[in-house]
Structure formats: structure tokens, C-alpha cells
Amino acid sequence: MVDIFERLEESTGGPIGQYMSRVHGYFAFPKLEGEIGPHMRFRGREVLNWSLNNYLGLANNPEVRRADAKGAAEFGLAAPMGARMMSGQTKYHEQLERELAEFVGKEDAFLLNFGYQGMISIIDALLTPRDVVVYDAEAHACIMDGLRIHRGHRFLFAHNNEESLRKQLLHATDLAEKQNGGVLVITEGVFGMKGDLGMLDKIVRLKSEFQFRLLVDDAHGFGTMGEGGRGTASHFGVTECVDVLFSTFAKSMAGFGAFVAGERWLINILRYNMRSQLYAKSLPLPMVVGALKRLDLIRHHPEYRMRLWEITRALQDGLRENGFDIGVTQSPVTPVYMKGGNEEGTNLIVDLRENYGVFCSIVIYPVIPKGEIILRLIPTAAHTLEDVAHTIEAFKAVRDKFESGHYRSMPIPQMAEADFRVR
């Protein structure tokens, strides 16, 4: 018999955890300090920050801060006590649900405590073991974890590939008919790594050939895409054809929580069957009233979204014009693709942060294949054109070093926190 802790202690720490003693506090779990925004402090230095999902710049909006403070002062963080079904229901929760549903063009919405947890529970509540799922190969981890607990069959289609989806729908339909089940297609509105949009228009057209329902995770599309920021389904004009629409407050709303929207009867089914909500404390009132204020600002201040897209276009156009590969992004998510090893990428990002004062996320193996590097930037309405210009010049400088082999010949610096130890 094996002792669980002994096995864990002898393990490498997992695909990402094996690097923890080298990356903790710098590449992983970095501490950004100061007021949330484009300019923050990292390890005692000011950096230009492109690593926050604060799309509309609402995190430090004065009206938002006042609403948050007023909510905390009036209700405290404990209210309401208990799960929504038992004792955690309030008129504010119901108001937010009504306003969210109206905003995204659905009959009803259900407020969720967490986006990640919520998606897992939505999938669980929608499906039986007889049902078959067809999902995009680059679906978010919350979708993948939801599918882990689905006891039925699932088919994966190549990312945003209509022919691959059609092929998998043929298999799924055949299997579902044999076992008296249904078919659910799951995709995203905006894919958070590449920044491309889910092919919602093409998926919806396939409804004329196949019988299935469509669940869309629009975490990055809500507030940024579509008419007035109503999301990616609005962008494609297919809101009515998306059967289950999910989004989170952690991106454009710069808040906490999430929601799922659809026909009223369906949302009521989810209200009474989503285990992550039935057995969890209700979302605290300061977060609910704060979300009401954020939604109000999104509805009545289109200039925030216009500013976001001004910065986005300046950044993406500037990168393209200077020869950087930013792939197929159609959203504010801005990946910069490079070819090289982990050592080169590591040294580049250290140089970028320490000597050019630019903080962005880096994605390398094992998250993506060996030999690939992604520098991921998230523009916001709070950034300036001067921030964009500085960043492009910094990227040009580190690219020159990268291409000359400068980072390849350097030893990887020890940047992890000195007090972090793995036994």
C-alpha cells in the first residue's frame, strides 16, 4: 500500500509544478502591487502591465469603487447567509439576473458564485449518461473539467473547423439515436489564448442539418464583442440560436461571479439542479450590487468599449506593421508568437520585465508544444497610446536580441522567491 503523501512528495510536481522551485513568485504566482491598472509595481519596480483581464478599465472606476464600498458598508461581506435556495435569496440577486438576461437578449439568467465552478455544474445539470457532447479542441479548462464528470460519450472537433465538427456530429447523432440521448455542442465566444472567435455562425447553420443544442462560454466576449458589448452571439447575430449562454464577471466586469442565460424554463431547471449553487453560500451582496453598477456602466458608457478597441487596434496594428506574428486574433486578446526553447523565452521575459519595464504573460511548454513561445497581452480601456508605443519599441528590442541568439547563450537567472522551497 502506498502512502498518498509519500507518493506526492516523491513526484515531480506535475507538468507545471515540476518547475515550481524555479518559477514561483516570478513566472508563476507573481505579485503585482498598487492600484489595479496599466502601471503597477512588480518586485519593487514600476512595470507597464498587459496581464490583467480588466478590459473596460472598470476595476478602479470611481463609480465602481464607490458602489463596492457602499455595498460593503451597508451589507458586510457575510450577507446573505446560506445558499440561495435555503436563505440566500435577495431582491438584488433577482434584479441582477433580470438585467443580465435583458442585456444579453435572453428570457432569464441565473447568477453563479464562480465562473469555473459554474461551467462544470452547468454541464453536469444539462446532461445524462445517454447524451453525447461535441466540443472544440481548444475549449477552456472549466469545460474540460465539466466533461470529466460527464458519464456519457464525447467527441472532439478540430479547433474552429466546420468540416471536423460536421464529421463529429455525424458520429454523435448516430450514437445518440442508438441510446435515446441528445447532442450538446460546446464552444467559446472568444478563445482566451489565441483571441479568435468561436465559429458561432457556422455552428448555428449546422442546426439545419443536425439536431443539437448549443452551449457557449462567452467569458471574454461579454462586454467586448457585439452590439453594446452584448457578446459574441450578438456579434454574429445568432443570439436566439445559442441555447445556453454563459459568462463571467471576472473579465469586462472586473468583478466576481458569473451567470448563465437562456429560456426561462431552462434556467429554472438549472436553478434547482446545479449542485455548485445548491450547496454553496450565496454570492455576497457587495459583489451583487457592485455587479449592478458595472452592468449599468457597460450599458450607458459605450466610450469604455470604444476606448478598448482603440487601444486594441493600435497595439495589434503596430505589432503587425513591425513584423510580429499575432496569429488570427479577432478580439482584444493579443498573442505574440515566437519560435524558440523555454530557456530563450525565459530569458526574454526577464529582460522585458527587468530592463524595459513591460510585464506580460509568457506561455511555453508544457502548456503549448516544445519550441513555441507565446507572449500574451491584454489591452484595456485604461491603457494609453503612449503605453502602446513604449511596448512596441520594447518588443522590437527584445526581438532583435532573440533573433541574434543573445538569450540562447545566457544562463537562466534564478528569479524564484528565495524563501520558496520544495522538499
How would you describe this structure to a colleague?
By secondary structure, this protein is α/β, with parallel strands linked by helices. It folds into 2 domains: 11-55 and 302-404, Alpha-Beta Complex (Aspartate Aminotransferase, domain 1); 62-300, Type I PLP-dependent aspartate aminotransferase-like (Major domain) (Aspartate Aminotransferase, domain 2, 3-Layer(aba) Sandwich), CATH 3.40.640. The protein contains 16 helices and 14 strands. It has helices spanning 4-10, 14-17, 20-23, 62-75, 91-104, 115-126, 141-148, 162-178, 200-205, 232-236, 264-271, 275-278, 285-300, 302-321, 342-356, 385-404, and strands at residues 32-33, 39-42, 45-49, 108-112, 132-136, 154-157, 183-188, 213-217, 244-248, 258-262, 334-339, 358-359, 361-363, 372-377. The strands form 3 sheets. It has a 7-stranded mixed beta sheet. It has a 4-stranded mixed beta sheet with strand order 1-2-3-12. The protein has a 3-stranded antiparallel beta sheet with strand order 11-14-13, covered by helices on one side. Strand 13 (361-363) and strand 14 form a beta hairpin. Helix 15 (342-356) crosses helix 16. The longest helix has 20 residues, at 302-321. The relative contact order is 0.16. The mean pLDDT is 94.
The assigned structural class equals alpha/beta
Order of helices and strands: HHHEEEHHEHEHEHEHEHEEHHHHEHEEEH
Quaternary structure classification: single chain
N- and C-termini, Cα separation: 22 Å
Q: Can you tell me the residue ranges where pLDDT is under 50 for at least 5 consecutive residues?
A: none
Biggest sheet statistics: 7 strands, mixed
Number of domains: 2
